[in-house]
Design a protein that fits this description.
This protein folds into three domains: 236 residues, no CATH class; 229 residues, no CATH class; 220 residues, no CATH class. Helix content is 48%, strand content 15%. The protein has 28 helices and 18 strands. Strands 1, 2, 4, 8, 9 and 10 form a six-stranded mixed beta sheet that branches. A six-stranded mixed beta sheet has the order 11-15-14-16-13-12. A two-stranded parallel sheet has the order 3-7.
Length: 691
């Protein structure tokens, strides 16, 4: 069997599954090399994101635009803020609206080579790190770069400026602890070849490590060089759900039989020492697991309360300053609720419990605080050990004192023995403190085993009743939204799905062509039926209030499902056309106004000629009273799209032209370019130009 054939067999199932899941972002004729680059980009970004539902095109540096410009030997560049992948400036603004004064930020870069071995790695690695260095130093966009690289630079510079435009003015943010730089160089071959291939290249690689200490508040993690074994592990975590094994001897089963009537198979309650709990929230590299908080209605915020909790954890459990926080953590914490669709208890020997595809639905704050605090202690220990002589670094921490005594006796110590002893004592003390954290901190835990969505909805709603929760997430569990999800699934052979719950289809085998998230549908609906593209572009807070008020104008029980489906179709179809036309990055800021223009053109050219249809922009088009006419309107659009796509493309093209012309009018009226898309006069200008 050829080397190429062998390699293909090893990653074939991963590649095929990926192409099935992301056919929207992958063209049918796309090469294996291109698909592999996107696979690596997506999976490595997911390692650092709590949101798996992002477009690959948003992070690829050159594959969603023309060939003009350099990718800087970088396949993907992602900005992640509070666990969310930032697709553009408007996306960033929406994220920080619901953030505290401090935000967690990381950058993820990838370079992928679809080949069997790490050949010529030194030169390729050098180009990769040089490219990262250059774009991190970039203070402005440049025509020399691709649109993907420029999009990253624009977001990066805005994040690092510390001032973000939001509804009502600006918001100052502070980056919590510094920006983590994560980079991955990945091949499709085996990691087993790594050691031989890297022999002779390590010095060159070391010399090409990022040197950014003087240009930004960066925490630089070493570039991970990996093969298909790592891809397999991350792939399984993302698409099959994370799995965790831990000792469950401190948990007890809830034995009442009547819970099964509600679709709950088992409940375990009690506590877990942090040594066991960290197996649930951290991966093997000590990173916070991505995706396990996607069902948590409260994102993590750096608040004064959380700061005080971390401060109380500092210190040992002997009652010294702050030490009580560890011993009494169990008593002072409300606990964590975990829902697992797959749970196995008593595997093998001992008290092993295995959960897969689980979600922490309540306890995001607790988990993040503990992870951050523990990680900081681990970093402190690593820093101390790195300050030791080379011959001491790899020695077991418990053997350091013996090693020092032997070297002192033999006269083998280079430098000042007193200083070395102080460093060794500091390392030992730090190590003991970490062990104390693992044993002293006990986390109240409730693990619920259920596969029923209704039971999951009930649990999430009942465990998140405080005012600080994301009300929109709770609204997603309303009967109207459940009905809307069913309508999308049954309409037009289920080609377009409504992702009512975040990441709901991330691990699904259900085949469909397109999907739209709740946030996207909210914006698409408001853009057309509320004639508010400016709010869809920038003012997510206003839209959420319109959806969650006592008399909602979005997601109301009085609305027709057809109107939402039509809004979703126009959004998806326009988005695909922009990708085909290589203008997505250029038009991203104005996509909602283009949608509004499309609806206006459709009303004037298509809907007005059919008495059975209702005009899309008609103020009554969203009412259940006109559901039949809206059904006809929807059918008219779908039939036109299927029978005469060229006509649809002409409408999309006209929408862009009208937006471009309206931008010039706004500029002539002295409106700043970065303010145009949130100005309510903008869509009125578009309307006037289309008349």
């Amino acid at each position: 069997m050829s080397t190429h054939r062998s390699k293909t067999l090893m990653i074939n199932d991963i590649m095929n599954n990926f192409k099935n899941k992301f056919y929207v972002d992958i063209a049918p004729e796309e090469s294996d090399n291109s698909v592999f680059e996107k696979l690596v980009a997506y999976l490595m970004t997911c390692k650092h994101s709590s949101d798996y539902d992002f477009s690959i095109q948003d992070i690829c540096t050159g594959q969603n635009d023309s060939s003009v410009g350099s990718e800087m030997s970088i396949d993907s560049a992602a900005v992640i803020v509070n666990g969310n992948v930032v697709s553009g400036v408007d996306s960033l603004e929406n994220i920080v609206v619901n953030s505290g004064d401090k935000v967690n930020v990381s950058y993820v870069f990838t370079q992928a080579k679809n080949k069997e071995r790490f050949s010529n790695i030194a030169g390729e690695y050098g180009k990769f790190t040089t490219g990262i260095n250059n774009i991190l130093r970039a203070t402005k966009t440049d025509k020399y770069y691709t649109q993907g690289i420029n999009n990253f630079i624009e977001i990066k510079n805005l994040v690092e400026s510390g001032v973000i435009n939001v509804e009502g003015g600006t918001k100052s943010i502070t980056i919590n602890g510094g920006i983590e730089i994560n980079s991955y160089f990945v091949i499709s071959g085996s990691e087993n070849s790594m050691e031989d291939d890297l022999r002779g290249a390590r010095e060159h690689i070391a010399n090409n490590n990022l040197n950014l200490d003087n240009i930004g508040n960066y925490i630089i993690n070493s570039t991970e060089i990996a093969g298909h074994e790592t891809l397999r592990k991350v792939h399984d975590d993302v698409f099959m759900g994370a799995d965790a094994d831990f000792n469950s001897r401190t948990l007890a089963p809830f034995t009442m039989d009547n819970i099964r009537r509600h679709g709950i198979e088992a409940i375990y309650t009690g506590y877990l020492p942090f040594k066991e709990y960290k197996r649930i929230i951290q991966d093997d590299e000590g990173n916070l697991r991505g995706g396990i908080f996607s069902e948590n209605v409260r994102g993590y915020l750096e608040s004064p309360i959380n700061k005080s909790i971390k401060k109380s954890l500092a210190g040992v459990s002997d009652g010294s300053s702050g030490g009580k926080g560890r011993d009494l953590f169990f008593a002072m914490n409300n606990g964590v609720t975990i829902i697992s669709k797959d749970l196995q208890s008593g595997l093998g020997t001992g008290n092993t419990m295995k959960i897969r595809g689980y979600q922490i639905v309540n306890g995001c704050q607790t988990s993040n605080i503990l992870h951050e605090y523990y990680s900081e202690c681990i970093k402190d220990l690593k820093k101390i050990k790195e300050g030791l002589p080379k011959e001491y670094i790899d020695i077991d921490i418990n053997a350091l004192s013996d090693k020092f005594s032997e070297d002192l006796l033999d006269g083998n110590i280079q430098g000042n023995p007193k200083e070395l002893k102080q460093k060794i004592d500091a390392a030992i003390s730090c190590h003991k403190d970490i062990e104390d954290i693992e044993s002293s901190i006990c986390v109240p835990v409730r693990i619920i085993h259920t596969k029923k969505d209704d039971a999951i909805d009930m649990i999430i709603s009942s465990t998140n009743t405080q005012n600080s929760v994301n009300e929109l997430v709770l609204l997603s569990r309303s009967e109207f939204n459940k009905g809307l999800e069913r309508y999308f699934k049954n309409a037009y052979n289920g080609a377009l799905r409504y992702e009512r719950r975040k990441n709901q289809y991330a691990t699904s085998d259900d085949l469909f062509k397109y999907k739209i998230s709740m946030d996207e549908l909210l914006k698409a609906y408001a853009c057309i039926y509320l004639k508010s593209p400016h709010e869809s572009a920038r003012y997510m807070g206003k839209l959420k209030k319109k959806a969650t008020s006592k008399t909602p104008t979005i997601f109301s029980d009085t609305h027709s499902y057809e109107s939402y489906y039509l809004a979703a179709r126009i959004y998806i179809d326009l988005d695909n056309w922009m990708r085909e036309s290589k203008i997505l990055s250029e038009c991203r800021r104005y996509r909602w106004h283009m949608m509004y223009a499309v609806a206006s053109i459709l009303d004037a050219t298509v809907m007005s000629k059919d008495r059975g249809c209702i005009k899309i922009l008609d103020k009554n088009s969203n009412s259940a009273d006109v559901a039949k006419r809206m059904e006809s309107t929807l059918e008219k659009y779908v039939n036109l799209f299927d029978s005469d796509y060229e006509a649809i493309k002409d409408i999309f093209k006209r929408s862009k032209e009208s937006v471009d012309e309206a931008i010039q009018v706004m500029l002539e009226n002295k409106i700043q370019l970065n303010e145009i898309n949130k100005d309510p006069e903008f869509h009125k200008t578009i309307s006037n130009l289309l008349k």
